[in-house]
Amino acid sequence: MAVDIAGRRGIIRRYFDHLPVSDATPVVTLDEGDTPLIFSERLSNEVDAEVWLKYEGLNPTGSFKDRGMTLAISKALEEGSDAVLCASTGNTSASAAAYAARGGLTCGVLIPRGNVALGKLAQALVHGATVLEIEGNFDRALELSRELADRYPVTLVNSVNPFRIEGQKTAAFEIAQALGRAPDLHVMPVGNAGNITAYWRGYSEARRANWISDTPIMYGFQAEGASPIVRGAVVDEPDTIATAIRIGNPASWKGALQAAEESEGAIRSVPDDEIVLGYRSLAREGLFVELASAASIAGLRQLKASGAVPSGAVVVCVLTGHGLKDPDSAIGDGPRPQIVEANVEAILAKLELA
Ligand code: F0G
Question: pLDDT tens digit string along 76-106?
């Protein structure tokens, strides 16, 4: 039976005319993108605005990285590469491993030892990547990856690969199309700063294409212990509970500053305890995200407290990754399952129904 793949999902086919692809590009896709923009009644009431959550955890490997990876892997294949490499705090490696497997490429990943959530590690391993833990942090892993890609025949698929940013900009297209307008404020976490660079490009292109008549004010939030852009200096030993954004020397530093400056926004930081509060409040609203994603919510609250959220403003917060990647953080030192005898009376007593 012939399979018709025209009109299928995936960001390359949906935004073909807005991406650096041609009919000669082999499309390696897992139907990424088209993620929901979920209205948050509770956050809207809390900050007296209209708050929408772009739930990127619903991409095929559970993070926004898939938007960039479908393009980076497709282009690597088009250019005749047979191996890809990345440094990662976890999500990039999970996505690279999955898309490399899909495209039949070999994949190597360098991760900082002991600071990658177990689910992300499991993803890279199960998709067949060669996973190398280094004695060093993400910034060191990225330096080594760049050096290897310069000297050996392997394609780097970190966001310093321009196709990654191109693919990731499609999230801004989707927001523009879903709302039928630009948000007033756009709030997101910042680590290596590729994603904020991508969103700003996406909104800017959407305005040029007349899909929207404005662009949002962009706010990026680093974790306080890993906030080089806010401090204006490289952080040699970045530290935060949100391991995904534990980065001291972001590759797209300039792109983040440009987004903030051109949109009249800012790059700011939030402390770990506020990230955890954001994480818990999203969970109690039914949204399971990873800690780094909750920097958006901590950031929104900080903006509200500083008077930067006008009453009734349309706000988009990006939730970058799925909470299932990191069950250890979810369970933490919170409540555990209770053991109960296998009979109705005992269960009723525990449930306080009787
Ligand atoms: N949120 C999550 C869940 C991430 O995994 C990352 C980055 C970010 C936010 C920040 O995005 O780097 O574009 O500013 N994770 C990378 C990785 C570094 O290796 O998975 P950014």
Answer: 999 999 999 999 999 999 999 999 999 999 9
Q: Is the Cβ atom of 292 under 6 angstroms away from ligand 1?
A: yes
Annotate 15-30 with b (16+ C-beta within 10 A) or e (fewer).
beebbebeeebebbbb
Q: What residues contact 244, with CB distance under 8 A and at least 6 apart?
A: 89, 90, 91, 117, 189, 191, 290, 291, 292, 320, 321
Q: Which alpha helices (DSSP H) does 79-117 contain, by range?
A: 91-103
Q: Classify strands 50-55 and 37-39 as parallel, antiparallel or unpaired.
A: antiparallel
User: DSSP secondary-structure letter at 339?
Assistant: P
CA–CA distance, 165 with 55 (Å, rounded to integer): 18
The rounded Å distance from CA 340 to ligand 1 centre is: 41
Q: pTM of this prediction?
A: 0.96
For ligand 1, the distance from its centroid to the CA atom of residue 176, given in whole angstroms, is 22
| pLDDT tens profile 276-300 | 999 999 999 999 999 999 999 999 9
- Tokens 């297209």 belong to 173
238 touches ligand 1 (CB under 6 Å): no
Residue 237 region by backbone torsions, left for phi larger than 0, else alpha for psi between -120 and 50, else beta: beta
Please work out, in degrees rounded to the nearest 5, the angle formed at the alpha carbon of residue 116 by the alpha carbons of 110 and 120. Answer: 90
Distance CA 19, CA 32 (A): 15
pLDDT tens sequence across 45-79: 999 999 999 999 999 999 999 999 999 999 999 99
Residue 241 token pair: 């509970």
Query: Whose Cα sits closest to atom 6 in ligand 1?
Result: 244
With a 6 Å cutoff on the Cβ, whether 90 touches ligand 1 is yes
Q: Is the CB of 290 under 6 A from ligand 1?
A: yes
Q: Are 255 and 197 spatial neighbours (Cβ–Cβ below 8 Å)?
A: yes
Identify the pLDDT of residue 1. 47
Q: Which residues on neighbouring strands pair with residue 321, listed in sequence order?
A: 63
Using a pLDDT cut of 90, give the percent of the chain over it: 95
